[in-house]
């Protein structure tokens, strides 16, 4: 309240006196925001702080209340052996963790790269005028509408080594020489996860890119047509630069989403070290291995990584905050 | 000359429609195959067919009459509906303040909200677990309603804010001249204009809550309190080699058909809502 009046008086000399109405609106706004702020503080702020706190303790699942502060021990601790050698322990030297980090990063970048290219193709198709466009748009919404868990199970049936239709199709078309245990074998598990994820999220990417495409004024293309610019050149010189902001926002958004992937991998390739991501490993430590504090340390690091990328996203998308001031 | 020109045009046309057909088939096939499998029973399940060959409702009967799947369905409906209503209720007033009133720190607040909506849910899992145990709502639907607020609330606030920002200022000015308070402006002036946006946002938030897995898996522990995604993920036979694929596909189809219908009916609105919010459902 005090700061509000202070800020207001500072402006007074230049603008007209702050009216009763503006003050009333500011008061109402503050009142209107309180429920949301309280809800977010309880459901997001506090649990986040507690999770970070737990990562600095020796908490276990059965004894949360008796957790004691141990500093950075979960992240890195060392011990000097009698022989004089130093042994490092903790998350930062845990090969399982770095394997999970590598899996997550590999998954996120590969899937988003494919989704961007395929999403662009689908968006270009949808942006063209042709008979049956409505059907295509309806069809691509189906993968998006299907719950991730359901699509994971549908695909694990289709990818089944013995009775899966994809092995059958691959062999009929001569693409596969023998049946592949897609989800079970370490070599193909990541490919299986990527196939399902790309299938499921390309539509989302395509819709975001399509929205960007539709904002490009048509007369630019007409002018290019008159000048005899080849369609391929039109795409690289006109479409791509103009759709780039929308594309970047979509890519970064999907990247953030892919970095926290949990459900698809948990269901499609359980217990496979080849696909275990940061989220899967963190939950395993929290609730299955009774290493609550260690799991908290993993989720804290995951949070830090994603927080850095979120700042990047908001920085790139800040255009949205300007304009529309009322 | 003209003939070869037409041929080139024709080839382009054919290639384009091949691409279109490919996109449609790839999008729809997995769902089609799930429906196909759900109507097979016994040994027919293990014969690979591309077209319907047998028709049996056995799997549907099994899923709906044995186990706790009907209960899981009710849980999902209850949790998702209450979550969405709660989020919309809190979000309407908040987004009015964020979109129509100038105050200091508004940009920062909006960024924080956007940031929370991109939160990795894993980051709060440990703290939420403690809080939910402390509140005594572990293994109840309330644990899920409580925790789902973390993604439904920022999402609804964000989308409704973008929408309200676009409402013409003249309407509001007229109401102010008539002496309307902000509360009256929201309930009497904006609400009637906002129904389409509320429906779209609510639907997207509903889909998000309906599909949620991590919290549902962690905060419920018995068959009777689970939601549908967890039930489907944990549906298994007596041994790990005896996965009841028929039942799983039937359950999947039951869960997915309402969503697919809703999405197809509200197609246009959903597309505009998704692109306005730039948020994944």
Write the layout of secondary structure elements.
The complex is a heterodimer of chains A (326) and B (281).
Chain A lengths: L1 H10 L8 H35 L22 E4 L5 E4 L5 H33 L5 H13 L2 H11 L6 H8 L16 H25 L4 H9 L4 H29 L3 H6 L9 H11 L3 H25 L10
Antiparallel strand pairs in A: 1-2
Helix pairs in contact in A: 2-12, 3-7, 3-9, 4-7, 7-9, 9-12, 11-12
Chain B lengths: L1 H37 L19 H8 L3 H32 L5 H12 L4 H14 L5 H25 L3 H9 L4 H30 L2 H6 L8 H7 L10 H21 L1 H11 L4
CATH superfamily of the largest domain in chain A: MetI-like
Radius of gyration of chain A equals: 26 Å
Structural shape of chain B:
globular
Oligomer: heterodimer
Task: Calculate Rg of chain B over CA atoms.
Answer: 24 Å
The low-confidence runs of chain B, each spanning 5 or more residues with pLDDT under 50, are none
* Helical content of chain B (DSSP H or I, runs of 4+): over 70%
Q: Which architecture of the largest domain in chain A would the CATH scheme give at its second level?
A: Orthogonal Bundle
Count of distinct strands of chain A: 2
Element-by-element helix/strand order of chain A: HHEEHHHHHHHHHH
Write down the secondary-structure element order of chain B. Answer: HHHHHHHHHHHH
Number of self-contained structural domains of chain B: 2
- Give the CA-CA distance, first to last residue of chain B: 52 Å
The SS-based structural class of chain B is mainly alpha
| Largest β-sheet summary of chain B | none
CATH topology of the largest domain in chain B: MetI-like fold
Which two protein chains have the largest interface (Cβ within 8 Å of the partner's Cβ), and how many residues from each? A-B, 107 and 100 residues
- Estimate what percentage of residues of chain A fall within beta strands: under 5%
Q: Uncertain regions of chain A: pLDDT < 50 for 5+ in a row?
A: 1-15, 319-326
